[in-house]
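Lab manual, section 2.4: Encoding a predicted structure.

Procedure: take the sequence of the chain (341 residues), apply the prediction step described in section 2.3, and record the output as C-alpha coordinates. A sample record is shown.
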Amino acid sequence: MNIIELDEVHKSYDGVAVLRGVTLRVPPGIVYGVLGPHGAGKTTLIHLMLGFLRPDRGVIRIFGSSNLQQVDGRVGYVPERLRYHTRYTVREYLWYLGRFSGLSGATLRRRVNAEMSATGLDSVADRPMSALSRGMLQRVGIAQALLSEPELLLIDEPTATLDPEGQREIIELLAAVRKRGCTILMATHFLDEADLLCDRIGILHGGRIVAEAETCTLQRPARSIVITVADLPQAAETALTALSPAVHCNRREIVLNPNTPELQAQVVRLLLDHAITIITLAPQRHPIEEFYLEAVRGHPQREESSETPPHGPSGAGDALLHELLRREEQRTLEDQPSRRL
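Recorded output:
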Protein backbone atom coordinates (compact mmCIF):
# COMPACT_ATOMS: atom_id res chain seq x y z
CA MET A 1 0.00 0.00 0.00
CA ASN A 2 1.24 3.47 -0.84
CA ILE A 3 1.48 5.89 2.08
CA ILE A 4 0.38 8.85 -0.06
CA GLU A 5 -1.95 8.65 -3.05
CA LEU A 6 -3.21 11.73 -4.90
CA ASP A 7 -5.40 11.50 -7.98
CA GLU A 8 -6.06 14.56 -10.17
CA VAL A 9 -6.03 17.01 -7.26
CA HIS A 10 -7.02 20.58 -8.14
CA LYS A 11 -6.90 23.68 -5.93
CA SER A 12 -7.57 27.34 -6.71
CA TYR A 13 -7.48 30.50 -4.62
CA ASP A 14 -10.07 33.13 -5.50
CA GLY A 15 -10.25 31.79 -9.04
CA VAL A 16 -6.49 31.49 -9.50
CA ALA A 17 -5.56 27.87 -10.31
CA VAL A 18 -2.55 26.66 -8.31
CA LEU A 19 -2.78 22.87 -8.56
CA ARG A 20 -4.17 21.60 -11.88
CA GLY A 21 -4.44 17.85 -11.50
CA VAL A 22 -1.65 16.57 -9.25
CA THR A 23 -1.28 12.78 -9.30
CA LEU A 24 1.27 11.31 -6.92
CA ARG A 25 2.25 8.00 -5.33
CA VAL A 26 4.66 7.70 -2.39
CA PRO A 27 5.45 4.15 -1.21
CA PRO A 28 6.43 3.41 2.40
CA GLY A 29 9.91 4.02 3.75
CA ILE A 30 11.24 6.47 1.17
CA VAL A 31 12.07 10.17 1.16
CA TYR A 32 10.15 11.85 -1.65
CA GLY A 33 11.11 15.37 -2.69
CA VAL A 34 8.66 17.74 -4.36
CA LEU A 35 10.80 20.23 -6.28
CA GLY A 36 9.53 23.55 -7.53
CA PRO A 37 10.12 27.30 -7.26
CA HIS A 38 8.38 29.60 -4.79
CA GLY A 39 4.73 29.89 -5.74
CA ALA A 40 4.59 26.50 -7.46
CA GLY A 41 2.04 25.21 -4.93
CA LYS A 42 4.26 23.03 -2.72
CA THR A 43 2.87 24.41 0.57
CA THR A 44 -0.67 24.14 -0.78
CA LEU A 45 -0.01 20.48 -1.60
CA ILE A 46 1.19 19.75 1.93
CA HIS A 47 -1.72 21.63 3.53
CA LEU A 48 -4.13 19.55 1.45
CA MET A 49 -2.50 16.34 2.68
CA LEU A 50 -2.79 17.57 6.27
CA GLY A 51 -6.47 18.41 5.85
CA PHE A 52 -5.88 22.12 6.44
CA LEU A 53 -7.39 22.77 3.00
CA ARG A 54 -9.92 20.91 0.88
CA PRO A 55 -9.26 20.22 -2.81
CA ASP A 56 -11.61 21.69 -5.38
CA ARG A 57 -11.71 18.22 -6.90
CA GLY A 58 -9.64 15.07 -6.87
CA VAL A 59 -8.89 12.41 -4.26
CA ILE A 60 -6.29 12.41 -1.44
CA ARG A 61 -5.57 9.21 0.47
CA ILE A 62 -3.09 8.93 3.34
CA PHE A 63 -2.42 5.40 4.63
CA GLY A 64 -5.20 4.30 2.29
CA SER A 65 -7.82 6.54 3.89
CA SER A 66 -9.47 9.61 2.39
CA ASN A 67 -10.60 10.64 5.91
CA LEU A 68 -7.52 12.63 6.88
CA GLN A 69 -8.76 13.24 10.44
CA GLN A 70 -8.48 9.50 11.12
CA VAL A 71 -4.76 9.41 10.31
CA ASP A 72 -3.82 12.72 11.93
CA GLY A 73 -1.87 11.16 14.81
CA ARG A 74 0.31 9.17 12.41
CA VAL A 75 1.57 12.26 10.56
CA GLY A 76 4.25 14.75 11.68
CA TYR A 77 4.55 18.21 10.15
CA VAL A 78 7.40 20.71 9.93
CA PRO A 79 6.07 23.97 8.41
CA GLU A 80 8.17 26.42 6.44
CA ARG A 81 7.47 29.33 8.79
CA LEU A 82 7.41 28.26 12.40
CA ARG A 83 5.44 30.26 14.96
CA TYR A 84 6.37 29.83 18.62
CA HIS A 85 5.30 31.05 22.02
CA THR A 86 8.75 32.44 22.76
CA ARG A 87 8.25 32.90 26.49
CA TYR A 88 8.68 29.13 26.95
CA THR A 89 11.96 27.30 27.19
CA VAL A 90 12.65 24.55 24.65
CA ARG A 91 11.89 21.83 27.20
CA GLU A 92 8.66 23.51 28.30
CA TYR A 93 7.52 24.01 24.74
CA LEU A 94 8.15 20.41 23.72
CA TRP A 95 6.53 19.24 26.95
CA TYR A 96 3.43 21.31 26.15
CA LEU A 97 3.25 20.03 22.56
CA GLY A 98 3.74 16.46 23.71
CA ARG A 99 0.83 16.72 26.16
CA PHE A 100 -1.25 18.29 23.43
CA SER A 101 -0.48 15.21 21.27
CA GLY A 102 -1.72 12.87 23.98
CA LEU A 103 1.58 11.97 25.65
CA SER A 104 1.94 12.11 29.43
CA GLY A 105 4.00 11.06 32.42
CA ALA A 106 7.12 8.97 31.92
CA THR A 107 6.36 8.45 28.22
CA LEU A 108 6.23 12.20 27.62
CA ARG A 109 9.44 12.77 29.56
CA ARG A 110 11.20 10.01 27.64
CA ARG A 111 10.04 11.28 24.24
CA VAL A 112 10.98 14.92 24.96
CA ASN A 113 14.43 13.93 26.19
CA ALA A 114 14.97 11.56 23.27
CA GLU A 115 14.07 14.13 20.61
CA MET A 116 16.04 16.94 22.25
CA SER A 117 19.06 14.66 22.17
CA ALA A 118 18.41 13.48 18.60
CA THR A 119 18.02 17.02 17.27
CA GLY A 120 20.95 18.55 19.17
CA LEU A 121 18.87 20.65 21.57
CA ASP A 122 20.26 19.38 24.89
CA SER A 123 22.55 22.39 25.30
CA VAL A 124 19.65 24.86 24.92
CA ALA A 125 16.91 22.81 26.60
CA ASP A 126 16.33 25.38 29.36
CA ARG A 127 16.95 28.47 27.26
CA PRO A 128 13.98 30.72 26.32
CA MET A 129 12.81 30.21 22.74
CA SER A 130 13.24 33.94 22.14
CA ALA A 131 17.01 33.53 22.56
CA LEU A 132 17.44 30.83 19.91
CA SER A 133 18.91 31.21 16.43
CA ARG A 134 16.86 30.35 13.36
CA GLY A 135 18.75 27.10 13.01
CA MET A 136 17.94 26.08 16.59
CA LEU A 137 14.30 27.05 16.12
CA GLN A 138 14.18 24.82 13.06
CA ARG A 139 15.56 21.99 15.20
CA VAL A 140 12.71 22.58 17.67
CA GLY A 141 10.26 22.32 14.77
CA ILE A 142 11.72 18.98 13.73
CA ALA A 143 11.76 17.73 17.33
CA GLN A 144 8.08 18.57 17.87
CA ALA A 145 7.13 16.80 14.64
CA LEU A 146 8.88 13.64 15.83
CA LEU A 147 7.50 13.53 19.38
CA SER A 148 4.65 11.17 18.51
CA GLU A 149 6.95 8.94 16.44
CA PRO A 150 4.98 9.51 13.22
CA GLU A 151 4.90 7.06 10.35
CA LEU A 152 4.78 9.92 7.84
CA LEU A 153 6.68 13.21 8.09
CA LEU A 154 5.72 16.19 5.91
CA ILE A 155 8.45 18.86 5.72
CA ASP A 156 8.03 22.21 4.00
CA GLU A 157 11.21 24.05 2.89
CA PRO A 158 13.33 22.97 5.87
CA THR A 159 16.33 25.23 5.15
CA ALA A 160 14.79 28.15 3.25
CA THR A 161 15.46 30.78 5.93
CA LEU A 162 18.89 29.56 7.07
CA ASP A 163 22.43 30.61 6.27
CA PRO A 164 24.75 28.08 4.56
CA GLU A 165 26.05 26.68 7.86
CA GLY A 166 22.53 26.32 9.21
CA GLN A 167 21.42 24.64 6.00
CA ARG A 168 24.23 22.11 6.25
CA GLU A 169 23.37 21.33 9.88
CA ILE A 170 19.67 20.77 9.13
CA ILE A 171 20.49 18.57 6.12
CA GLU A 172 22.73 16.45 8.35
CA LEU A 173 19.94 16.25 10.94
CA LEU A 174 17.35 15.19 8.37
CA ALA A 175 19.77 12.61 6.99
CA ALA A 176 19.79 11.07 10.47
CA VAL A 177 15.99 11.26 10.69
CA ARG A 178 15.57 9.39 7.39
CA LYS A 179 17.38 6.41 8.93
CA ARG A 180 14.44 5.91 11.30
CA GLY A 181 12.49 4.39 8.44
CA CYS A 182 9.46 6.65 8.47
CA THR A 183 8.16 7.89 5.14
CA ILE A 184 9.09 11.51 4.40
CA LEU A 185 7.69 13.94 1.86
CA MET A 186 9.77 17.11 1.63
CA ALA A 187 8.96 20.22 -0.39
CA THR A 188 11.99 22.23 -1.44
CA HIS A 189 13.38 24.50 -4.14
CA PHE A 190 17.00 23.56 -3.36
CA LEU A 191 18.29 20.98 -5.82
CA ASP A 192 21.29 19.97 -3.70
CA GLU A 193 19.03 19.40 -0.70
CA ALA A 194 16.81 17.06 -2.70
CA ASP A 195 19.82 15.29 -4.18
CA LEU A 196 21.34 14.63 -0.76
CA LEU A 197 18.20 13.58 1.10
CA CYS A 198 15.65 12.15 -1.32
CA ASP A 199 15.20 8.68 -2.80
CA ARG A 200 12.79 9.96 -5.41
CA ILE A 201 11.91 13.43 -6.70
CA GLY A 202 8.95 14.92 -8.53
CA ILE A 203 8.96 18.23 -10.38
CA LEU A 204 5.92 20.41 -9.60
CA HIS A 205 5.41 22.78 -12.52
CA GLY A 206 2.32 24.34 -14.02
CA GLY A 207 0.21 22.82 -11.25
CA ARG A 208 1.21 19.22 -12.01
CA ILE A 209 3.94 16.70 -11.26
CA VAL A 210 5.49 16.82 -14.73
CA ALA A 211 8.44 14.45 -14.19
CA GLU A 212 9.74 12.00 -11.59
CA ALA A 213 13.04 10.18 -11.10
CA GLU A 214 14.91 8.02 -8.64
CA THR A 215 17.81 10.14 -7.42
CA CYS A 216 20.17 7.16 -7.76
CA THR A 217 19.62 7.31 -11.52
CA LEU A 218 20.85 10.91 -11.49
CA GLN A 219 24.18 9.96 -9.90
CA ARG A 220 26.05 9.98 -13.18
CA PRO A 221 28.86 12.10 -14.57
CA ALA A 222 27.72 15.60 -15.44
CA ARG A 223 26.92 16.18 -19.08
CA SER A 224 29.48 18.99 -19.19
CA ILE A 225 32.32 19.96 -16.86
CA VAL A 226 34.72 22.87 -16.52
CA ILE A 227 38.35 22.36 -15.54
CA THR A 228 40.01 25.56 -14.32
CA VAL A 229 43.82 25.74 -14.60
CA ALA A 230 46.49 28.24 -13.62
CA ASP A 231 47.63 28.66 -17.23
CA LEU A 232 47.27 26.63 -20.41
CA PRO A 233 50.19 26.83 -22.86
CA GLN A 234 49.45 26.73 -26.57
CA ALA A 235 51.06 23.30 -26.99
CA ALA A 236 48.80 21.80 -24.31
CA GLU A 237 45.73 23.48 -25.78
CA THR A 238 46.52 22.00 -29.19
CA ALA A 239 46.98 18.54 -27.70
CA LEU A 240 43.71 18.80 -25.76
CA THR A 241 41.57 19.89 -28.70
CA ALA A 242 43.03 17.04 -30.73
CA LEU A 243 41.55 14.55 -28.25
CA SER A 244 37.91 15.23 -29.16
CA PRO A 245 35.58 17.86 -30.65
CA ALA A 246 33.97 17.89 -27.18
CA VAL A 247 37.04 19.65 -25.72
CA HIS A 248 36.91 23.47 -25.76
CA CYS A 249 39.82 25.49 -24.35
CA ASN A 250 41.04 28.93 -23.45
CA ARG A 251 44.00 30.03 -21.31
CA ARG A 252 42.19 29.38 -18.03
CA GLU A 253 39.44 26.84 -18.70
CA ILE A 254 38.83 23.54 -20.43
CA VAL A 255 35.18 22.69 -21.07
CA LEU A 256 34.15 19.10 -21.83
CA ASN A 257 30.74 19.07 -23.49
CA PRO A 258 29.53 16.40 -23.75
CA ASN A 259 31.57 14.83 -20.98
CA THR A 260 32.34 11.13 -20.56
CA PRO A 261 34.43 9.39 -17.87
CA GLU A 262 36.89 8.26 -20.52
CA LEU A 263 37.35 11.72 -22.02
CA GLN A 264 37.64 13.31 -18.58
CA ALA A 265 40.38 10.84 -17.63
CA GLN A 266 42.28 11.55 -20.87
CA VAL A 267 42.15 15.31 -20.33
CA VAL A 268 43.29 15.12 -16.71
CA ARG A 269 46.12 12.78 -17.64
CA LEU A 270 47.31 15.13 -20.39
CA LEU A 271 47.23 18.11 -18.03
CA LEU A 272 49.30 16.23 -15.47
CA ASP A 273 51.76 15.11 -18.15
CA HIS A 274 52.24 18.77 -19.09
CA ALA A 275 52.70 19.71 -15.40
CA ILE A 276 49.70 22.06 -15.55
CA THR A 277 48.16 23.00 -12.19
CA ILE A 278 44.49 22.05 -11.94
CA ILE A 279 42.61 24.53 -9.73
CA THR A 280 39.07 23.16 -9.93
CA LEU A 281 37.09 20.48 -11.74
CA ALA A 282 33.34 20.98 -11.50
CA PRO A 283 30.17 20.28 -13.46
CA GLN A 284 28.65 23.11 -15.42
CA ARG A 285 25.35 21.64 -14.38
CA HIS A 286 24.68 18.87 -11.90
CA PRO A 287 22.62 15.97 -13.33
CA ILE A 288 19.69 16.81 -11.04
CA GLU A 289 19.74 20.38 -12.37
CA GLU A 290 19.75 19.08 -15.93
CA PHE A 291 16.81 16.80 -15.10
CA TYR A 292 14.89 19.69 -13.55
CA LEU A 293 15.49 22.05 -16.47
CA GLU A 294 14.59 19.42 -19.05
CA ALA A 295 11.34 18.68 -17.20
CA VAL A 296 10.36 22.34 -16.98
CA ARG A 297 11.31 23.16 -20.56
CA GLY A 298 9.47 20.10 -21.82
CA HIS A 299 6.27 21.18 -20.04
CA PRO A 300 5.79 24.92 -20.59
CA GLN A 301 3.33 26.73 -18.33
CA ARG A 302 -0.18 25.88 -19.47
CA GLU A 303 -2.36 28.49 -21.11
CA GLU A 304 -4.97 29.94 -18.80
CA SER A 305 -8.26 28.09 -18.84
CA SER A 306 -11.69 29.67 -18.60
CA GLU A 307 -11.76 29.07 -14.86
CA THR A 308 -8.63 31.16 -14.32
CA PRO A 309 -8.70 34.98 -14.49
CA PRO A 310 -6.57 36.81 -17.10
CA HIS A 311 -3.86 37.59 -14.58
CA GLY A 312 -3.10 34.00 -13.62
CA PRO A 313 0.00 32.27 -12.25
CA SER A 314 2.29 33.34 -15.07
CA GLY A 315 3.72 36.62 -16.26
CA ALA A 316 2.24 39.69 -14.59
CA GLY A 317 0.03 37.48 -12.41
CA ASP A 318 2.97 36.14 -10.35
CA ALA A 319 2.67 38.86 -7.72
CA LEU A 320 -1.07 38.27 -7.44
CA LEU A 321 -0.64 34.53 -7.07
CA HIS A 322 2.07 34.83 -4.43
CA GLU A 323 -0.01 37.31 -2.45
CA LEU A 324 -3.06 35.03 -2.61
CA LEU A 325 -0.93 32.09 -1.45
CA ARG A 326 0.50 34.13 1.41
CA ARG A 327 -2.93 35.26 2.57
CA GLU A 328 -4.40 31.78 2.33
CA GLU A 329 -1.51 30.24 4.28
CA GLN A 330 -1.90 32.92 6.95
CA ARG A 331 -5.65 32.25 7.22
CA THR A 332 -5.04 28.51 7.33
CA LEU A 333 -2.52 28.65 10.16
CA GLU A 334 -4.64 31.08 12.17
CA ASP A 335 -7.75 28.93 11.71
CA GLN A 336 -5.93 25.69 12.63
CA PRO A 337 -3.94 26.50 15.80
CA SER A 338 -4.36 23.02 17.20
CA ARG A 339 -3.23 20.85 14.30
CA ARG A 340 0.54 20.64 14.93
CA LEU A 341 1.99 23.66 16.62
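Check your result against the sample. The first strand starts at residue 4 and ends at 13.
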